[in-house]
Amino acid sequence: MKNIYEEFHKNSHLQKRIISERNFTYTSLLPLINKYLYERENILDIGCGVGTIDFFIASKRKKVTGIDISSNAIAQCVSNANLLNLSTYVDFFCGDFLSLEINNEFDMIICFEVLEHIKEDNLVIKKIYELLARNGVLILSVPSKNAPLYKIGLATEFDKKVGHLRRYSFEDLESLITGEGFFAKEVIKTEGLLRNLLFLNKTAGMIVRVLNRVGFLSDIVTFFDNLSIPLFGESNIIIVARKK
Predict the structure, then answer these.
(1) Do the domain assignments include residue 27?
(2) I need a labelling partner for 240 at 20 to 30 A (CA). Which of 81, 121, 130, 133 fits?
(3) Is residue 47 part of a domain?
């Protein structure tokens, strides 16, 4: 998996600006982060990539620690932090989350599109539980077994390419987190057929970049995409969890 993501982040570009709250790629995640960020000051991002969400949070004067297995991604994070004048609010570390020694406690932990890459996903949840403060929250997202393209076999090659070991149903995810001491506070089924087509199709990158920049277009596509979820199913599941 490390080799996959070293290659993926090898040619990443500097971010240069904080993403908008209407950003198409993160349209389901950013409102949720904002909702639970109030009165939380110390955030951990597991699988932070090039730090896009971390800089969004740090721009609100919150302290963020980002961890990623890719050294290329972490190098990019450090460069972006300097460029965006946010170095005071962010720390980045390269390594395997399960192997890293983390001597801190966090009142919010985010883990987006990571569990499906790790064989011992229960150990990830267990360690998150240990690192999370008493009143903290975990926001977790995973690919869904209910994804329409997955159900007809059109996501199989994509899953293999990006290193997915599994997908989850809500029942799978709930069983996993409750088994390690969490309870589900909020569940969101997101990413309909249209968004999933855009993200799985490598030639659609230009369209996604335009949608990320043009808020009203992002809103329109998201509106119609959300209408498709009850009809065809969701491609992603987001869960907000607390300690029992």
Answers:
(1) yes
(2) 81
(3) yes
